[in-house]
């Protein structure tokens, strides 16, 4: 930053501290962050729609039915951008935000602002089967994080403003301010207090107004509720809840299974080639997998399943409703595959909107099956399409309240609150019991970076191991005599614990002062007793790369030790003491609670 600008910022900060209270400043910042996040969301949407319209109207691919090669072109452009400009692998949007909040004090890089604005439209605009919500949230959160850093905002407030950015982005895309607030609470495990509620509300409103300003009264789903909740349909909503629950488990497991296959392909070029071919084959057979899928959902809501399916190799058979049901069920199965393949091949996008597409299809399929079994039952296919979305969101994201309020808000279907609650809660319960973690949180849980509404786990997750490692222990060599150890280490140390290290700094044992106390004053033993005969194994060892703070606390509890050695890259790093760890925990808990 130029000196003149830095001086101006300093003057502004001094003026702010004197004239604006911290609470008022946070509220002002939440409005600004909400507006900027909404602007980011609008930019992502419009950039994507511009690319789509350019490809459909200005290029002959669609006329010649060659659209299925477009995703490969988009993935290639993303690959070139990542290799020559971004220069590091793309990360899952929401997971990277949670990791930032947990381990990086809410700090996101400056390039996280513009990279999603480039890679997501290229991926989705060229037909990649992913969503835009995740990239919009990532970019908006990066804007909030960097503004917070600029104004010297503390880490806890920065976390709140990052959540405000996500609310603003979601409210802008879906025009659903309440669901946007709930998403921030459920996914980012934010404590919903009056201190956090008002900034989230202001950011959400700001995001919605931004969307209205730039996009007008354009609605995401053109749907008007014609049939409300009927008690006789309750068993079918329960059935849909069970179906979406198992579909959520399938979606999540398929996601990790396909990503693990792509990880075996070390070269990004091979990933691009394999992924591009796979997506092309799926799109040729199932055209609705192309792009985000909002048009597909709208066609289902309008009751036009033939338009939703588009031109397929099976057009001659779509007069048979069971063929239509089979094709729609195929979309349910392959949407998760197409989405994960796009991400595995190097594309940028989110999982939230593909979840909605899969849920809407499954809900429509269930309704069609009920209506065509010939048993005299009749349910609203459009209602089941909506409620299916809610069930998949609740199951896949583990966010049932977000699912309920989102579908209710974006459709104006508050009359469906009861069936939404039935289906979403059943789906959530089934998935939660089957899967401990979601697509967003599984990898984070492995490294101890998972945020939680459990305050103890949250505080442990926020703690850093580097902050509690102590290195003022005097090491000894196993070949040292007792006399050498006493004169070179014990007499010069303020600690009662001595790590025994090999010549290459590997830990081979420890000696506690109590081990040598009986022989310290027996000079006859100084030259006849050696360290290697006195040392013993530590009660437990902490591994820097793999152990998180929750595991460290458990090792202290199980071993009963007061000090445990830390191994980093196979070598001795230092010790963690229980007293220092508990002190750091108390300080972090106080800061978190405040």
UniProtKB/TrEMBL annotation:
The keyword Transmembrane helix applies. It comes from the Bacteria. The keyword Transmembrane helix applies. It is a multi-pass membrane protein. Residues 469-529, 535-593 form the CBS domain. PANTHER family: CHLORIDE CHANNEL PROTEIN CLC-E (PTHR43427). This is Chloride channel protein. It comes from Flagellimonas lutimaris. The lineage of its organism: Bacteria, Pseudomonadati, Bacteroidota, Flavobacteriia, Flavobacteriales.
């Amino acid at each position: 930053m130029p000196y003149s600008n830095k001086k101006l910022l300093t003057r502004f900060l001094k003026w702010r501290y004197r004239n604006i209270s911290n609470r008022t400043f946070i509220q002002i910042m939440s409005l600004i962050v909400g507006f900027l996040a909404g602007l980011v969301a609008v930019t992502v949407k419009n950039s994507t729609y511009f690319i789509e319209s350019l490809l459909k109207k200005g290029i002959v691919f669609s006329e010649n039915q060659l659209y299925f090669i477009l995703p490969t072109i988009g993935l290639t452009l993303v690959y070139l951008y990542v290799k020559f400009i971004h220069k590091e692998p793309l990360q899952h949007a929401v997971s990277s935000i949670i990791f930032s909040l947990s381990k990086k004090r809410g700090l996101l890089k400056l390039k996280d602002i513009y990279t999603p604005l480039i890679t997501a439209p290229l991926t989705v605009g060229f037909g990649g089967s992913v969503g835009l919500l995740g990239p919009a949230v990532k970019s908006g959160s990066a804007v909030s994080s960097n503004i917070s850093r600029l104004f010297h905002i503390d880490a806890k407030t920065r976390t709140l403003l990052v959540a405000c950015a996500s609310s603003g982005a979601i409210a802008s895309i879906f025009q659903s301010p309440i669901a946007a607030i709930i998403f921030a609470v459920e996914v980012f495990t934010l404590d919903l207090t009056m201190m956090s509620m008002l900034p989230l509300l202001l950011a959400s409103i700001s995001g919605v107004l931004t969307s209205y300003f730039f996009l007008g009264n354009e609605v995401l789903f053109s749907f008007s509720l014609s049939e409300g909740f009927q008690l006789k349909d309750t068993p079918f909503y329960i059935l849909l809840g069970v179906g979406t629950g198992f579909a959520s488990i399938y979606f999540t497991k398929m996601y990790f299974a396909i990503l693990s296959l792509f990880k075996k392909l070390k070269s990004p070029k091979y990933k691009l080639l394999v992924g591009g071919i796979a997506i092309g084959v799926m799109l040729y057979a199932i055209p609705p997998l192309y792009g985000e899928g909002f048009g597909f959902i709208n066609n289902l809501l309008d009751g036009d399943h033939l338009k939703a399916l588009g031109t397929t190799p099976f057009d001659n058979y779509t007069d048979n409703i069971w063929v239509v049901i089979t094709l729609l069920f195929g979309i349910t199965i392959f949407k998760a595959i197409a989405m994960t393949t796009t991400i595995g091949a190097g594309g940028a996008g989110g999982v939230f909107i593909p979840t909605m597409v899969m849920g809407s299809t499954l809900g429509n399929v269930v309704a069609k099956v009920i209506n065509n079994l010939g048993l005299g039952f009749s349910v609203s296919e459009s209602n089941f399409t909506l409620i299916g979305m809610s069930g998949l969101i609740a199951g896949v994201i583990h966010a049932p309240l977000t699912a309920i309020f989102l579908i209710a808000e974006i459709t104006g279907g508050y009359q469906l609150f009861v069936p939404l609650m039935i289906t979403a809660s059943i789906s959530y319960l089934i998935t939660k019991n089957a899967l401990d973690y979601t697509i967003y949180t599984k990898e984070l849980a492995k490294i101890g970076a998972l945020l939680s509404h459990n305050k103890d786990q949250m505080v442990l997750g926020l703690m850093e191991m580097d902050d509690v490692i102590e290195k003022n222990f005097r090491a000894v060599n196993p070949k040292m005599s007792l006399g050498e150890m006493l004169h070179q280490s014990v007499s010069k140390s303020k600690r009662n614990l001595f790590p025994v290290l090999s010549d290459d700094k590997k830990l081979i044992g420890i000696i506690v002062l109590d081990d040598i106390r009986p022989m310290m004053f027996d000079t006859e033993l100084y030259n006849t007793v050696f360290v290697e005969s006195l040392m013993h194994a530590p009660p437990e060892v902490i591994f820097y790369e793999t152990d998180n703070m929750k595991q460290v606390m458990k090792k202290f509890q199980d071993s009963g030790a007061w000090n445990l050695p830390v191994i980093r890259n196979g070598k001795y790093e230092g010790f963690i003491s229980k007293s220092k760890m508990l002190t750091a925990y108390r300080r972090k808990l106080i800061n978190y609670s405040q």
